[in-house]
Each structure stands twice: as structure tokens, then as C-alpha cells.
Amino acid sequence: MVVNAPAGERHEWKRVARGWYLAYGVLAAITGALFFVDDTVSPAQRWGGLVVLVALCCWYAAIGTKLMHGGGHGRGLLYVSLALPLTVGLYAIVPFGAVMLCMLYPHIWSMLRLRQALAATVVGVIATALAMVRWTGFSVDVLVVAIAGMLVAPVLGFWIGRIIEQSKRRAELIAELAATRAELAELSRRAGAMAERERLAREIHDTLAQGFTSVLLLLEALETELGKDDRAALGHLHNARKTAQENLAEARAMVAASGPPHLRDASLPDALRQLVDRIGPELAVESRLVVTGEPRPLATSGEVVLLRATQEALANVRKHAKAKHVDVVLAYESAEVVLRIADDGCGFDPVRATGFGLVSMRERVAQVGGEMHVDAVAGTVVRVALPL
To answer: Alpha helices, DSSP H only, in the chain?
Structure first.
């Protein structure tokens, strides 16, 4: 698993790369300006030096900027092999060309391996000393500067390399820590979900499934014994058996950790229509489902929430409302899908309601990032909105 380190914990050398870009640009601008403000510079030196400076800046922009993030030693050798002679050559053309030498050695030590960096440093110091002889002549001062450069440049280089290595290692450790933490969190979440699923599976299997099976067998026996002329009784028995069959299927689906049977072979509007069409004959009420907007597929979790909300609301109508009309509206809007179940029953006080159904419904809606509102002043209106 690949996990990115937090923004504040990235490779430290990469974080300060823009500072190196800025420093290079500032030094290049200063060097370029000196060509025009230094009266001792001849036209040949000015234009020749500017050509070298532009070539050096273009070479850095094309390759060097990408290598300042660390790594890429193969291309780093290519970059230094041209940047070194251009930088030393600029100093050989004009004395203030030494300004660009300030960026040469950090480049060498950040882009090359240890042995390559040492070799490039020795070559650079010797070439710089020879260029210095051009301006000051050979003297003890030149020799001292060369020796000091041989000593200071490697020390500076080792320090830069150490920073890069520590920064890289720190970023790797943080990435590994983040990956481990994410894996542990995922394992913990899965273990908790599995434990809860097993608990519910055991409870439902030992209670609901067996109870519904017994009810189904009793209703089938009763249906066989009833007189064939009692059409109303047979109709009620048929509905009871159908309900028991569906509840048994629901219980088995939960045990198997699969989706609701209503949504297995039907769309959400069709599943809701089955619920609405059934409650009308059962309660002798007028029931209606209205679907507005263009139906769009939702995540399975969202469809389950809307289905369960409808089942719970209609169950409350069946048990408490004493309603004559029930309207269910499923509206597909631009940014959300809205479910509205309204009845003209006696209503209730949502604040004082202590039933498990409403609490469970609110928790389900919240888990998928939706909102739920209940208005029970005149009848009852349950409104559930889920983001698309």
C-alpha cells in the first residue's frame, strides 16, 4: 500500500528546493546586471559572458531544477559535466563571474554520488584556481585559496549530502508510519464490523428466522383448514404469509450479510412501489408513490437507507397513525435525492418519542451523510435527503 506523507512531513530537501531556485535566479540576475554596471568590462567580455551566463541558466532550467529534488545521479553527472566548465568559464571571462560559483558546489554534492562529487570538486577547485591566476597572477594567495577550497568544499558537500540523506530517510520513516497506521485502522475497522455482523447474525438466526419459520408453517396449516368461501379471511392470511416470507428472506439476507431482497432484483422506485401498493389494501387507506426527476442509481448503502426509512415510516403508519391517506414521494434532484413520506393521521411528539425505530432511522441516515427531519404536528411527515 502506498501512502503519501503529510504535507508538513515531506522530504526536507524537496521542501526547500524552491529556495534554491530563487537563490540561483537572484545570483544570475546580479551577475547579469554587473555586466552593464561595471565599466571595466569590455564589449567582448560583456557579450561573451552574457552568452555563457544564458547558456548556464538554460542548462539549469532544463535539467538542474529537476535534479535539485535529490536522486537522478546519472543525469546529475550529465548536468555537472557542462555546468562546471560553464561556471568556471564565466569566472575566467569576468572576475565577478565568481558569484555563480556559490551555486556550483551545492549542485555537485546534491546531484552526484560521493566519489563523483569528490572528483568534480577537485576539478572545480583546480579550474577555479587557474582562472584566478588569469586575474591576479600566480601567488601564495592563489595557492592558499586553492587549498582552502579543497578542504572547505568537501566539508560543505558532506554536510549537504548528510542533510539530503537524513531528510530522505525521515520522509521514508514517516511514510512507513502512516502506512502502518492506516493498515491498523483498517484492520480495526474490519474486526469491529465483523464482530458486530457475527453478533447480529447469531441473534437474528436464533430469533427472527426461527420465529418467522414457525409463523409461516402455522399460517399454511390454517389456510388449508379454512373454508373456501371465506374470501376475506383467505386474503388476510395470504398477506400475512407473504409478509412472513419476506421477513424470513430479510432475516436470511442479514445472516448472509447480503442486500435486502427488495433491492436484489428491482430498482429503488420499484421496491418502494411494492411497499406502498401493499399498505393500501392492508389498512384500507389511499396510498400513492410519486417519483420525480430522472431516476439515477445510488450507492447500495444509500438505497438501503431509503428503503429502510420507508419501511419504518409505513410500519409506524400501520401501528399508530390511524391515517386515511399516505403519500410517498421520491425526488431525484440535481445534488440530492429526497424521500418524503406523509400521512394524515394523528401525529405524535417527535421530541418525546422514545421508540427504537426513529433512532435507528436517524443513525442510518447520518452514516451515509444524509439529513432527516420529522414533522408530526398535523399528521406525520418524514423527510430524508441523501447527497448524490
So the answer is: 12-15, 17-37, 43-59, 65-67, 73-93, 101-111, 114-136, 140-204, 210-225, 231-255, 261-264, 268-283, 300-316, 356-367
* pLDDT of amino acid 53: 93
Contact (CB, 8 A) for 112 and 120 = yes
Residue-wise burial string across 328-362, b where 16 or more C-beta atoms lie within 10 A, e elsewhere = bbbebeeeebbbbbbbbbebbeeeeeeeebbeebb
Q: Domain residues of the chain, as ranges?
A: 7-178, 259-387
Is 380 within 8 Å of 321 (Cβ atoms)? yes
Rounded to two decimals, the pTM is 0.43
Q: 161 with 110: CB under 8 angstroms?
A: yes
Kindly report the backbone phi and psi dihedral angles of residue 8, in degrees, each rounded to the nearest multiple of 5, phi listed first: -80, -5
Yes or no: say if 117 and 108 are a contact pair by the CB < 8 Å rule: yes
Secondary structure (3-state) at 339 = strand
Instruction: Find the helix packing angle between 43-59 and 73-93, rounded to 10°.
Output: 170
* Intervals of the chain under pLDDT 50: 1-11, 71-72, 205-206, 210
Query: What are the grid coordinates assigned to 377, written together?
Result: 404536528
CA 320, 321, 323, 327 dihedral sign is: negative
| pLDDT of res. 56 | 92
**What gap in Å lies between CA 9 and CA 15, rounded to an integer?**
9
CA distance 325 to 92: 97
CA distances from 10 to 5, 156, 159, 172, 313 (A): 6, 23, 20, 9, 51
The CATH topology of domain 259-387 is Heat Shock Protein 90 (3.30.565)
pLDDT for position 331: 95
CA–CA separation, 378 vs 345, rounded Å? 8
Provide CB contacts within 8 A for 111, sequence distance 6+: 64, 67, 68, 72, 73, 75, 76, 77, 79, 80
Rounded Cα–Cα distance for residues 374 and 371 (Å): 10
Closest Cα to residue 271, out of 293, 233, 244, 298?
A: 298
How far apart CA 293 and CA 210 sit, in angstroms, is: 42
Residue 325 near residue 280, CB atoms below 8 Å: no
The whole-angstrom separation of Cα 68 and Cα 15 is 11
Residue closest to 372 by CA, chosen among 348, 339, 344: 339
